[in-house]
Amino acid sequence: MEKRIPYLDFLRCLAICLVVVLHSIASTLVSPDCYQCSTWYLCMLIDPFDRTGVPLFFMISGYLLLSRPGTEQFRPFYRHNIPKLVVPLAAWNLIYYSVEAGCGKHPMDPHDLLNKFLNQGVSYHMWFIYTLMGIYLLCPFLKRIADHCTTRQLAVLLGIILFPTTLRPILNQTLPVYIYLFGPMVEGLVGYFLLGYILGREKFQKKVRILIYLGGIAGYAACLLGNLAQASPEGISLPMNGGYMLNHYLLAAGLFVFFRTCFETHANRLEKWSGPLAKASALTFGVYWVHVLILNVLTALFHWEGSLFPLLVLQTSLTLLLSFLFSAMISAIPILHSILAQRQFG
User: Fold this and answer.
1) 296: buried, middle or exposed (CB in 10 Å: 19+, 13-18, 0-12)?
2) Residue 345's pLDDT is what?
3) How many angstroms separate the Cα of 25 from the Cα of each of 22, 51, 94, 110, 341?
4) In which residue ranges of the chain is pLDDT below 70?
5) Is 325 in a helix, a strand, or coil?
6) d(CA 8, CA 344)
7) Best label site of 1, 29, 113, 309, fewest CB within 10 Å?
8) What residues contact residue 18 under an 8 Å CB cut-off, 6+ apart?
9) According to the model, what pLDDT value does residue 4 have?
10) Distance of CA 172 to CAs 165, 167, 169, 237, 283, Å?
11) What pLDDT is stored for residue 346 in this prediction?
């Protein structure tokens, strides 16, 4: 059994909380009816952090998988890891589709279910698992690259990956000429995978950490101010929230390095939390699968006439609590655990 890494366990728990908060406040963020109310501004302040939840999951997986010696053996790697994504993916697609059919949204149609299963899934949050599965297919080859490259060379590779999806759009908005040059060679989100490996393996001096933190602050400010500048009573587009945006890379990197440094600096003081963190971390995959279903049920049940803020707090808190309870229950039943949540992120 692999040795636990407390800061990664913490980051998993933080990431799943950020994802749940994101999905809980999403409708408020984009609603013109909520524009400029106090709760909307609060959601906008939280939103840049929420957007780092999925990047942190990618980064955790990237560090762990690219650090393991066995990852380069592609057949054993595929045989061990791909079923742990595909089996829950098939099961949860069936569960979400059956719930929708039971609510009268559509009839039970096996052909329609298969079509959705092969096209990013029944529920909106499943795209992440499909993308992760694609990155897993690349992982043995990325591992071979990582093992034979210096950190500087990996940083160049990261820049090459990010150029078409993340950097070129910025250049095309600021330069007087339009740049295309070449299209994406791999999915741009692979950059998070590689970034997590770089940030997890290197020991950064204080000056470098400060630069990373300043980058994170700049990323937060760019996301917040850019979204505020484009919002209006007619529509709230949130242009800085795209998954490839540089501001998300900067903020996610800042959070990753900050919490890694905190846990490594105060290892003795935080040791008592390692056990609870490990247990909670092991439940995050189940929480990711079920939280949208629970959130949908709570949204349908709650008819709130008062202030919006208490509703969002109650809805988010209950979603997190019930999702963790559900994940703990299925983890205690081996057959359910193997079908619904047989792995953790990374």
Assistant:
1) middle
2) 64
3) 5, 12, 26, 33, 25
4) 1-2, 306, 343-346
5) helix
6) 12
7) 1
8) 49, 50, 51, 52, 53, 56
9) 87
10) 12, 9, 5, 20, 42
11) 65
Cα(92)–Cα(281) distance, integer angstroms: 20
| CA angle in degrees (0–180, nearest 5) for 43-33-218 | 30
The alpha carbon of 117 is separated from its chain's Cα centroid by a whole number of angstroms, namely 20
pLDDT at 244: 95
pLDDT of 336 reads: 92
List beta partners, residue 235.
232
Across 247-260, b (16+ Cβ under 10 Å) vs e yields bbbbbbbbbbbebb
In degrees rounded to 5, what are phi and psi of residue 91? -65, -45
Tokens in use for 199? 């940030």
Ramachandran angles phi, psi of 238, nearest 5°? 50, 60
Name the DSSP letter for residue 208.
Answer: H
Which segments of 122-243 does DSSP mark as H helices, in order? 127-147, 151-162, 168-174, 190-201, 206-230
Two structure tokens written together for 155: 């940083």
Read out DSSP for 131-159?
Answer: HHHHHHHHHHHHHHHHHT--HHHHHHHHH
CA 297 to chain centre: 22
